[in-house]
Amino acid sequence: MAQSPFEYAPAPESREIARLRPSYQIFVAGKFRDGRGEAVKTINPADESPLAEIAEAGPADVSDAVTAARRAFKSWSRLPGRERGKYLFRIARAIQERSRELAVLESLDNGKPIRESRDVDIPLAAAHFFYYAGWADKLQYAGFGPAPRPIGVAGQIIPWNFPLLMAAWKIAPALACGNTVVLKPAETTPLTALVLAEIIAEADLPPGVVNVLAGGPAIGHAIVESEGIDKIAFTGSTEVGKIIQRSVAASGKRVTLELGGKAANIVFDDAPIDQAVEGIVNGIFFNQGQVCCAGSRLLVQESVADEVVAALQRRLATLRVGDPLDKNTDVGAINSAAQLARIRELADAGVDEGATRWSPPCDLPDRGYWFAPTVFTDVAPAHRIAREEIFGPVLSVLTFRTPDEAVEKANNTPYGLSAGVWTEKGSRILSLAGRLRAGVVWGNTFNRFDPASPFGGYKESGFGREGGRHGLAAYLESEGFLGD
Amino acid sequence: MTTVREGDVLDVTRDDGSLRRFLHGLPGVDQVGAEARAAGLATRSIKTTAKAWAIDTAIRMVDLTTLEGADTPGKVRALCAKAARPDPTDPSAPPVAAVCVYPDRVATAVDALQGTPVQIASVATAFPSGRASLATKLIDVGEAVIAGATEIDMVIDRGAFLAGRYLQVFDEIVAVKKMCGAAHLKVILETGELATLDSVRRASWLALLAGGDFIKTSTGKITPAATPPVALVMLEAVRDFHAATGSLRGVKLAGGIRVTKEAVRYLVMVKDDLLLQRHKLATGQYDGADYVSVE
Questions:
Q1: 8 Å CB contact of B32 and A273
Q2: pLDDT tens per residue across span B44-77
Q3: Would you say the C-alpha torsion B102, B104, B105, B107 has a positive or negative sign?
Q4: Quick one: fold of A264-450?
Q5: Which residue from A220, A252, A265 is spatially nearest to A239, judged by alpha carbons?
Q6: Do A275 and B51 touch (CB under 8 A)?
Q7: Is B252 an annotated catalytic residue?
Q8: For the structural domain made of B28-283, what CATH number should be given?
Q9: What is the pTM (predicted TM-score) of this model?
Q10: CB proximity A4 to B under 8 Å
Q11: Closest approach of chain A CAs to the CA of B281, in angstroms?
């Protein structure tokens, strides 16, 4: 196909908007300070240039933060719900006011396209604070007894794929319920969480209610092991989730885990094909496929498989891969060298095991961590690319003949986080939703998020729900009440 | 005795039943998904060289139109002058695609546009309602063609379409196409009266099968006229028809496009959703205030 006469000129968002500073500090007991761990540089995955230096937390900072959170819990938990709600509304509004800055900063630190950080990550982060602000004074009506109590200090460890959004998912319900928080953002993406700490400080939250510790696995471990922590909320890999689970066993700590996934996106022969193709693209190439609920396995009915794969390939040729700050970029950079290596290893395994690899022609930048959108056909359910979470822009296409076979294949995974069903038959969507072992089932859409909708997994995708009324349960002690 | 109809390359118009089965067998359109895709494409940022190209291209696709009972020869001549030179202060501004008038004003336009590349389009077939006998519609078309129209904008019988009499609509388009001779045929679906995107897809295929050179959204007399999801579905029909038959047709958007930015968004749709190397797309009643003087 010849070049189109219509070539988009570069439309980069200005880097200045991020108000990037040379160094960032951790936030403990209401104060910013250098951590007592190592000073590390966070880099821009799009070109490997250093962005800023972070004085990471050391074990002593963890103990300071936990002590501060314990102290703050006494008064914060007794504050009337409507007062806690006011703080959360204030944070939500400040996120909206600083949304451009946060979006550019997120794209710089994470590598995701500005279109996504601007239109998805940041607005949803604000929406979560607004949503849980509304619950703060209504907890007694949420179905957890007449006087549900907060748990205490929550240790929250979040991943690098949606840095600010995951911080919002964790902090907003915890605070609404009256808990205090020690949050650790991922080592490769600490910046927006530290700016959120600034917003929290400016919102005049009492010192110690929220503490933000930048650091690596050792800090995460120290938080999990800390005796002053009452609850661990973790989003990340299943591997680390299992370690946490073992570590807190018999400690009395409560745990919720949101882990990996290998979601099936099921396309029936009566599906609205053009929209299904959009849903497949959104399912696996959104955020470079670095999404725990990504639709990484396309299960397509054999009778339309060729048609769907051809339409998908035609569509992928229009994806624009490149500079995350360009407003027309659809697919940005992989977050880290380590993640890129893992994606490459699994994609190579796909070829070795006999699957057919395809990518649209696209020029990848010379520097930075890049991986072209990739589709594997001729995939067998036993292949590693059909079983293991790749966490990258790699789609494995499998086929099925009957609805029973689709359900069987979709459920044939140790994971169970999400699934998609595409058909014009509403009854079929409902019947499949009941049979799929997945915490979230999307009907004729994919990767749609809303603060009012609970999100979480089955099996090795973890347990506990975030979002919605269900999300409150993770931060409340239910209480029975008998009396007169 | 049924026969394969002329131009029916897919052999789906032997009878009402086979045409119905074909149209109803097209994949459905999920309205929520189509709207989301159109909204997503609208966030594209078109700057500098891309913007300049898009604006010129949009101007080249405009049909400057006057379809009023009060149209005078003078008004038509003024419109023709503007069509040939949309911006008298800027000689590099390209001429528009066509001037569009009622059949009885075609002669005036032919006269005024001599020596320019601007086409003469005429609405016909009892525009805008289409509520007349086929014989009357054909006379309407014939008169416009004889007067010198190079493009005919017909309206489909929406009543027949909505009642499921697809073959009647098909036969009517075929008859009009025949009457057009060398003139290009644009088939106006009046999507605002078809209501659902499934109907838009079916009507698009129907018009393409029957030989329409362009499928056009609207008469401009009904609201809503062109909308992004409707345009998306029509463009997809042209894309799929091209894949099935090798014949590349055009889409014309009419009504509802008021500012440059909207016109550019539709061009983005053609680029990002169709990947056609060559395309014919026209925007209707364009009056981007920056580039075209408004009468």
A1: no
A2: 999 999 999 999 999 999 999 999 999 999 999 9
A3: positive
A4: Aldehyde Dehydrogenase; Chain A, domain 2 (3.40.309)
A5: A220
A6: no
A7: yes
A8: 3.20.20.70
A9: 0.94
A10: yes
A11: 13
